[in-house]
Amino acid sequence: MNVMWLVTLLLLLAGSGCSERIFKHTTDVSPSAGPPNRTALIRAEHLPNIELTTHEGRVVRFYEDLVKGQVVAINFMFTTCGNTCPLITEHLAAAQKALGERMGHRITLLSISLEPEHDTPERLREYRQVRGVGPEWIFLTGRRDDIEFLRRRLGVYDLDPVIDADPSQHAGIVILGNEPQGRWKAISALSHPIRIRQAMERTILPTSQWPTGETVVNEVPSQDNEAVETADLSILPSIK
Amino acid sequence: MGISRRDLLRWGIVIGGAAMLPDGLRPRLARADDLPSSPHTDPFLMELRVGQGIPPVAQPVTPFNTLADPGICVNVDGSTAFHVSPPRKVPANTEFFLIHERPLSHSFSPQLPKNILWGYDGMIPGPTIVAKNGTPQLVRFVNDLPMNDPVGIGEPISAIHRHGGFQASQDDGYPLDTFCTKQSRDYFYPNVPADGLEQNLHSTLWYHDHAIDITGPNVYRGLSGFYPNTNYLDTGDEATGLQLPANFYKGAPVGPFDIGLVFQDRQFNREGYLVYNTFDHDGFIGDKFCVNGLIQPYLRVQRRKYRFRFLNGSNARVYQFFLSTGDPFVAIGTDSLLLPHPVTVQSVRIAPAERVDVVIDFTHYQNNSEVFLVNRLQQTDGRKPSDLVSPGTPILKFVVGDKPAFDPSQVPATLLPVTEGPAQLLPQVKIQRRFKAERSNGAWVINGEFFDENRINARPKLGEPEIWILESGGGWVHPFHVHLSDFFTLSRDGKTPPPLERGRKDTILIGGDVARETKILIKFDGFTGRYVFHCHNIEHEDMRMMAQFEVVP
Q1: CA-CA to A214 of 20 to 30 Å: which in A125, A161, B164, B212?
Q2: Residue B395: is its pLDDT beyond 90?
Q3: Averaged over B12-17, what is the pLDDT?
Q4: Which residues of B touch A184 (CB under 8 A)?
């Protein structure tokens, strides 16, 4: 337990240094006299303005250039990830394609590398080309400590430091955000691609225009998962 | 494997323990999600009394015409209500209640600014609704919550779950069955025991929001209240039945000597405004301890016995309560039901949504002495509690009166006998089901899957007992809650469960250091249809660590 604490401390010490550096410029978020509003709070606490480089080699700022005023889907990945990553990319690509067919591309996918030393813009470009993804899908690399900081701020981490050190554990979450409205939601990238597309649609559209009701629910066909075993009564302790 | 102390030495950092840390660092450490710590507040400034923290009992209203369920409230996942039933037809003896969900200006502490919370009838906790066995109730909940609330904690979309209640699936607060601002939904509660058995007579239920994907922030914003049930044993009167400490004696109000205490942790920003972290999926942990919405309050007690209905209404924090005197106290109930026999305890551990009914006897304390209810279980993130610490945090101060008080109440040696328990039911059990709670790629799943409205995970047959095997690895704890029916705990990692788990429960903590494998015996009676079961760490629940069963004839 103590070890956990110390590791957490290390991460937080690293984080707190970062925090000052990264958030210093976001002067539009000053503490006000009243209760915080959702959009401002999220800007202040969760959307740092770290520097990133796109797969095209363009240097951008996370908040100012990618997220501010935008509707985005964010996930973390790395090009050498085996495991569940190919399936995740497949789900996201399917969701984005379906979204494009239904309503045009109105959400930007941001895939941020967890192995930034290895994932140069060239490697990201190659990865992207092989998978034939659409134009509204930006792959990003940057400084490791910046990306680690961003990942934690977006809630993509594991409390177990051993699991947290394994980047493949962080590829499974997609964060959907409508920045101006302060609406943010995380869903599993392993969810059915239709569910991901639906969540993207809801992130884009005002509530009054959401597709709703049974058609939404039943768009993913029912797949019951009921496993029943014969009861084993032989291994129960005695209870009086 | 973990990281060894040697690794830390290699990095040039050695710290003896948390006690050596400078004060400024400790609050950061205390919170995995790294929000700044709450401002300082002094404990024991606010008195817990009727009208301040102790809500009034809801009074029945003139019967009204019931309405069909609203079917057009759009949930945050785009779904609309699954159960859209016609107006309820209710028996002639039904009591009617009308509860409005609305914003209120609330003071957690005189040292913090007022916060706009959401409360049932504008109260924190909501009004106490008292049910009497055999008298059905129809409760209309009206949503008067604002749309586009700028604070952004919660959504004005509601479903009401009477937790522990035996009620039809359309009245259970199924997470899709919501009502929006300016809408209402009628809930019918039959208030009869499952299977008609006396052993199933309920005592301590509670009600809270259960809307799909947003239960965590909605409950955090204030939407919870007590729903005690009375019956011929647990009568609510100190002169009748078991004569437990109560708020009536021979029909006249006394006390209160039976008080619901809901424990909730909260977090505030530098200016003292309530904050919630949308991005924390581990389970939200706050650094301020509230009892019935007040930060570390005090309660004046007379020198006699009191019944307290402990409810952990926190999103993710587990508590373990001791008395500061080290004195034992008596547990008389777990979750919805009285125990078969009282159990004397030194402490009680209580996970989110669990209840423990206790009797504390203040008779022998000296005049005007102070006794504290202390939480000694430390928890810094939503994964699991860590160690018992000493001295812990005093959560509630009891200020003992200056002379012995009249006390006709008792704690009899037999409370609620079990007549149809494992001994009778196990020979009828034919099947078992296995539900594995685990963390997978940054989120939690049950049997590898997230909740989907369109998937049924179990179809138990009405009246046929089953064994459910609840597994959890990976170091996380999950308060596992099953709707509709209470259950018996058969084993904890193959061993006989501890005394407080030998009564029936509707929520049980699994995983972590508690148990990797828990076997429960469950039987569904009375109602067919869809119900959910889920992790009651509400952030996990909102990340869809939930599944559903359909009781079939």
Answers
A1: B164
A2: yes
A3: 29
A4: 278-279
Of B383, B454, B544, the CB nearest to A217: B454
Among B21, B383, B442, select the one facing A170 at the smallest CB separation. B442
Domain borders along chain A are 38-208
Of B17, B78, B494, the CB nearest to A198: B78
Burial B93-124 (b: 16+ CB within 10 A, else e): ebbbbbbebbbbebbbbeebbebbbbbbbbbb
Q: For position B34, what pLDDT does the model report? A: 63
What pLDDT does A150 receive? Answer: 96
* Shortest CA gap B455–chain A (Å): 5
Q: Print burial letters for B205-217: b (CB count within 10 Å at least 16), e (below 16).
A: bbbbbbbbbbbbb
Substitution target in A201, A226, A229 with the highest count of B β-carbons within 10 Å is A226
Q: In sequence order, what are the residues at sequence separation of 6 or more whose Cβ sits closer than 8 angstroms to the Cβ of residue B131?
A: B137, B189, B191, B202, B205, B227, B228, B229, B230
The CATH class of B24-43+257-404 is mainly beta
Q: What is the pLDDT of residues B509-535, one digit of tens each?
A: 999 889 999 999 999 999 999 999 999
pLDDT at position A194 over 70: yes
Mean pLDDT of A41-70: 95
pLDDT at B350 over 90: yes
pLDDT band at residue B219 using 50, 70 and 90 as cut-offs? very high
How many whole angstroms separate alpha carbon B203 and alpha carbon B357?
9
Q: How confident is the model at residue B17, as a pLDDT?
A: 31
Distance to chain B for A8, nearest Cα, Å: 7
Q: Closest Cα to residue B405, out of B308, B307, B305, B304?
A: B304
pLDDT in tens, B103-116: 999 999 999 999 99
The pLDDT, as a whole number, for residue B478 is: 97
The topology (CATH level 3) of B55-213 is Immunoglobulin-like (2.60.40)
Q: Would the CA dihedral through A130, A177, A215, A173 be positive or negative? A: positive
Tell me which residues of chain B, numbers 366 to 405, contact chain A at a CB-CB cutoff of 8 Å: 380-383, 386-387
ipTM of the complex: 0.83
Give the pLDDT of residue A27: 37
Residue of chain A nearest B450, judged by CA positions: A191
Note the CATH number of domain B422-551.
2.60.40.420
Burial class, A187, CB count within 10 angstroms (exposed 0-12 / middle 13-18 / buried 19+): buried
Q: Which of B:295-354 have CB within 8 Å of A?
A: none
- Taking the C-alpha atoms of residue A10 and residue A145, their distance in angstroms, rounded to an integer, is 13
CA–CA separation, A164 and B278 (whole Å)? 20
Residue B391 has pLDDT above 50, yes or no: yes
Which residues of chain A have a CB within 8 Å of the CB of B467? 231, 233
Q: Does B17 touch chain A (CB under 8 A)?
A: yes
- Is pLDDT of B375 > 50? yes
Is the CB of B457 less than 8 angstroms away from the CB of A225?
A: yes
B4, B440, B490: residue with CB nearest A239: B490
A38-208 CATH, one of 1.20.1440.60, 3.40.30.10, 2.60.40.1930, 1.10.260.30: 3.40.30.10
- Nearest to residue B133, comparing CAs of B207, B76, B90, B193? B193
Note the pLDDT of residue B8.
32
> What are B151-191's pLDDT values in tens digits?
889 999 999 999 999 999 999 999 999 999 999 999 999 99
CB contact (8 A) between residue A186 and residue B281: yes
* Segments making up each domain of chain B, as ranges: 24-43+257-404, 55-213, 422-551
Q: To the nearest whole angstrom, how far is the Cα of A24 from the nearest Cα of chain B?
A: 16
- Please report residues of A whose CB lies closer than 8 A to that of B316: none
Interface test with A, best of B34, B83, B214, B489 (most A CBs within 10 A): B34
d(CA B130, CA A83): 53
- Residue of A171, A199, A222 lying closest to B454 (CB–CB): A222
Residue A237 touches partner B, C-beta closer than 8 Å: yes
